[in-house]
Amino acid sequence: VKTVREAVREKPWLGWVLFAGTVLIVFLAGLFGSSILERRSEQATAFQLVRPIPDWEPRNEVWGQNFPREYESYRATRDTLFASKYGGSVMRDILAEDPRTVILWAGYAFSRDYNQARGHAWAIEDVRRTLRTDVPQPATCWTCKSTDVPRMMAAMGPAEFYKATWASMGPEIVNHIGCQDCHDPKSMNLRITRPALAEAWERQGRKIEEATHQEMRSLVCAQCHVEYYFKGKEEKYLTFPWDQGFSSDAMEQYYDAAGHVDFVHALSKAPILKAQHPDYELYRTGIHAQRGVSCADCHMPYRSEGGVKFTNHWMRSPLASISTSCQVCHRESEDELRRNVEDRQDKVKELLLLAEDALVRAHLEAQYAWSKGATEQEMKEVLQFIRHAQWRWDWVAAANGVGFHSPAEALRTLGTSIQKSQEAHAELVRVLARRGILEPFALPDVSTKEKAQTYIGLDMARLHEAKGRFLQEVVPTWDAGAREREAGYAR
Amino acid sequence: MRRIIDLLLPPLRWRVPVVIAAGVLAGLLLLIARLSNAVSYLSNDPRTCVNCHVMAPQYATWQTSSHRRTATCNDCHVPQDNVFRTYLFKASDGMRHAYVFTFRLEPQVIQIKDAGKAAVQENCIRCHTAQVGSTTIGAVTVDAARHGRGHLCWDCHRATPHGTVNSLASAPYARVPRLTPVLPDWMRMRRE
Question: Which of A6, A9, A42, A43 is the best substitution to test chain B (most B C-beta atoms within 10 A)?
Fold first, then answer.
């Protein structure tokens, strides 16, 4: 066989053929490479906005022009017709359904008015309407209500935002919870817009930017559906009490160490902690979280419309969408699955009410003991028991889903609440016995919302009248101011 | 080996240009390997399947299905009974996909081919043996279906796991993993 050297020496043109062959191979390989590049870049252009969204655009309808299906399904959160056994999207007057809560929150604005929240689309309207916002509140209260909040925080900085008053932000905060709260306007990736969550992670030595997509499908919810408090008398800095852990016990330790008190109870004088809705924390202890199921998997299941599949943005009770929420994994019938949920909720509710009865008695007995001349020294331990009992009851009661996010943890927490109320009761019996009072304390009649509110000294007629005036006189000026400001936005 | 190299060696005065040309070709092939994430195809990671964006709807639907917890793309779509068959299947399927994608021959609605059906059906049974024991006897196998005597699992379980509607446009804004940039981090401009 001839070597290439010999072949080329004999026929020099063969060298040129070899050269041309190499040119052709490199050329084709280059073509192939650029074809791969072109197809790679299609991935980027496959996602195009009909209308680009500027940073901090608060208006959901502007985002919605790009994503009609997601937006239309999100608008459905205005629905107020679905009622499950304990929840749903209907507005429920909790104080009327369960007047014990009026007594438990005596001295706090929650005793005036507390409704089960309606869908996200009602956030602004319901916060304006509730009697709780007649008390001077900080702007921190707006944090979870609106897509205008990230906009204002970007402009003012979070610390300054929290320091402002609730009323001063009225004309700025008008768009209800929506797209920008969870999405990046350029890539539509999930993102965290509320600093409190990122800060809590940082204190735990973790970076929120490192969360996986599946974690983010819960974390965007955990920006708001968590326990939080306003740190500092002036700063009112929104803070998650997670430094010692996520359980009610760990948060209780945190609050005790920080000396935080939400309000002093009007009847018992106990330094009370008001729980917000620790949905995320409770869910973390449940079996669904442990199996890697995110909030969105149940509350925003995939759905098909015509030839398109998308994430349903109508976040709501999965009991309204059992087939797409539960039956993706569970093969039982809808009725069976609903029964499974309600069975667990029934049990939680049973202990929840026992915990309330024990707490109501403890508060009223403590009030009675004060009236019989109990000393601060005698009452100190009692009040601490009441503080912890109410915190643990509220930790479950305030969370959505009547404990279904983690029935075992909910029942454990309620069990400790009842135990602590009983400790308070036992101590109070001794305090009264020292004053020669051995008869059991007769509870006053606080069996309806009205009776209970009268008992704790609320003038509801006056409160309703003031709220009516506010809604008629102040709110329209807020809306007018907002309309004028938004008219200047890029069209 | 030595002989073969000797046969191919160019005349002495050509050595330098030939070495350069060979280097250019090798470099180009390396670049193509990087552009195409070639190494990822040896893995079992579902992200590999969305290297080509046409698979985004399949990825998105799998990601929201109950199968995401236990089954990767390969677990269902590639034979898993022995390692040679696994890689032979991957190679032949992969070459076809590369060809189709490069020449833009992908249909609007991607449908599974016979070889793929056989693999999936085998894999359904592989994991769900406990549930299908009596059913396979009742002829839910590839062979039976091919001879018109039976059915495939998804003749009934039509929505498992990708849903019943499928096309390139069926999950337009699905959040699927994106390709990592070709340029390494230190070469990219920072916008700050």
Answer: A43
Q: How far apart are CA B64 and CA B60, in angstroms?
A: 7
CB proximity list for B173: less than 8 A, separation 6 or greater: A47, A67, A70, A188, A310
Query: Which chain B residues are Cβ-neighbours of A306 within 8 angstroms?
Result: 165
Q: Which residues contact A60 (CB under 8 A, 6 or more apart)?
A: A71, A74, A147, A175, A176, A178, A179
CB count in 10 Å sphere of residue A379: 21
Tokens of B132: 């299908």
Render pLDDT for A292-326 as a digit per residue (tens, 0 to 9): 999 999 999 998 888 888 999 999 999 999 999 99
Cα A476 to Cα B7: distance, rounded to the nearest angstrom? 91
- Tell me which DSSP letter residue B155 carries: H
- Encode burial over A149-179: b for 16+ CB neighbours within 10 A, e otherwise: bbbbbeebebeebbbbebeebbbbbbbbbbb
B19 CB near a chain A CB, below 8 Å? no
B121 neighbors B141 (Cβ within 8 angstroms):
yes
Tell me phi and psi for residue A56, to 5 degrees.
65, 25
Round to whole Å and give the CA distance between A127 and A142.
8
pLDDT category of residue B192 using cuts at 50, 70 and 90: very low
Q: What is the ipTM of this complex?
A: 0.73
Q: Residue A311: its chain B contacts at CB < 8 A? A: 64
In whole angstroms, give the CA distance from residue A131 to residue A111.
10
Q: How far is CA A255 from CA A242, A275, A308, in A?
A: 10, 11, 48
pLDDT tens figures, B103-151: 989 888 888 998 999 999 999 989 988 877 766 666 677 777 777 667 8
Q: Which residue of B has its CA nearest to A49?
A: B173
Residue A308 has its nearest CB partner, among B65, B170, B177, at B170
C-alpha to C-alpha distance for A103 and A100, rounded to whole angstroms: 5
**What single DSSP character describes residue A271?**
E
For residue B69, give how far its alpha carbon lies from the nearest alpha carbon of chain A (Å).
Answer: 8
Q: Which of A229, A219, A170, A218 is nearest to A192 (CA)?
A: A219
Instruction: Give this prediction's pTM.
Output: 0.85
Could you please report the per-residue DSSP string of B24-77?
HHHHHHHHHHHHTTGGGGGS--GGGGGGSGGGHHHHHHHHTSGGGGT--HHHHH
**Token duo for residue A454:** 């009268």
| Structure tokens that stand for B82 in this block | 């022995």
Q: Which of A39, A183, A214, A329 to mutate to test the interface with B (most CBs of B within 10 A)?
A: A39
